[in-house]
Amino acid sequence: MTQKEKSKTTVVVGLSGGVDSSVTAHLLKEEGYNVIGLFMRNWVDESVTIHDECPWVEDSNDAMQVADKLGIPFQVIDMSAAYQERIVDYMFSEYERGRTPNPDVLCNREIKFDLFLKTAVSIGADYVATGHYVRKSTSTIAGTEVHHLLSGLDSNKDQSYFLCQLSQDQLAKALFPIGHLQKSEVREIAKTAGLVTAEKKDSQGLCFIGKVRLPDFLQQKLEPKSGTVWEIPRDADVLSLPRTTLAEKAAPFNFHPNHGFKRGKHNGAHYYTTGQRKGLSIGGSPLPLFILEVNTAYNAIFVGQGEDHPGLYREALFIKASELHWVREDLSLSIGESCAYDVRIRYRQPLVKAIVYRTEEGAYILFESPEKAITPGQFAAWYSGEELIGSGTISE
């Protein structure tokens, strides 16, 4: 794109009040784009927020100061109603089912690259830009323009997993100006540019909510319900049953109280997640207790001692057909096809070797080695080299 073309191209930046989005706006302005800053207010209930960890008023003020420093238009838009409906209500329903949702992935799909994108286009934007540590490239394949979602070059900050549900249409309108930079470089750019966010620490917690007391958050709608914690011994018979088919390898163990013994009490199975170690408040065992499975139908939690407990590991997982998503639609598998990919099932997890098998019911992912704490409700994402190809919600 020529300098003249850039000057006529409007980019709306999601200014969050953090250093990454601040540098994103700065770089685009430096390149000659017509830049507009928008701050999204998506949360209004501070009763469950650890306030110092998510001072949205302070964040919006920082975003406004950055916009003022850069000399770009700025405004705050309220998306709290849509966020409540699309993200928060979804979280409650998933936890109620005993699944563990990933609100950051949904927030990117439903808010940043849907509602926010549509809002930006409505005010004349050609593109939206965010401070994600990812890269995008575009090529022409069989006469069709194809957008490639690539990992960020800072391996410690790569956020491609969080964008695993984006579509080609969404990527077509997206820019990621800091994806080729290291975090240290981003902070140095902010410092040199005199941006107020240069030394600001990174936000943590839920997308646009911040760090929350999760039990308090969930108790807004999910009432406490006392139940039993059952311990499953390492030599339980259910763990030695043969698993030969893909369906058997991907199936949860479906633990039952008869498989173990009472270990304690909990205040609601829907507050817990597979693989969780802390928060049980049960002591007296030689090794730490890990949650092996959560059963909200019976309000039961099943635990095992040690992170190498066999009940924590499975060879495969399943994704329903309705939950399958291909960033690269041209590479989607037909029923009966399979392909080797690198896969991750949670943020920051190293990629692992696996084969994706497409069936009429959905897709199975068979791992080269058993995977720990495969968690229903989370997303599995598969890559070819640096490129994210597709993703899906892990089924029960």
Describe the structure.
The chain is of the alpha/beta class and about 400 residues long. It has 3 domains: about 220 residues, 3-Layer(aba) Sandwich (Rossmann fold), CATH 3.40.50; about 100 residues, SH3 type barrels; about 80 residues, Beta Barrel (Elongation Factor Tu (Ef-tu), domain 3), CATH 2.40.30. Helices cover about 25% and strands about 30% of the residues. The chain contains 9 helices and 18 strands. It has a 7-stranded antiparallel sheet with strand order 12-16-15-14-17-18-13. The longest helix is centred in the N-terminal third of the chain and has 20 residues. It is globular. The N and C termini lie far apart (about 45 Å).
The termini sit apart by 47 Å
Sketch the major β-sheet.
Answer: 7 strands, antiparallel
- The CATH architecture name of the largest domain reads 3-Layer(aba) Sandwich
Number of strands: 18
**Oligomeric state, counting identical vs distinct chains:** single chain
Radius of gyration: 23 Å
Strand arrangement in the largest pleated sheet: 12-16-15-14-17-18-13
Shape: globular
SSE pattern: HEHEHEHHEEEHEHHEHEEEEEEEEEE
Here the CATH topology of the largest domain equals Rossmann fold
Taken as a percent bin, the fraction of beta residues is 25-35%
Residue runs with pLDDT of under 50 for 5 or more positions: none
What portion of residues is helical? 10-25%
Name given to the CATH homologous superfamily of the largest domain: HUPs
Count of runs of 4 or more consecutive helical residues:
9
Q: Quick check: average pLDDT?
A: 91
Number of domains: 3
What class would the helix/strand composition place it in? alpha/beta
Highest CATH level, the class of the largest domain:
Alpha Beta
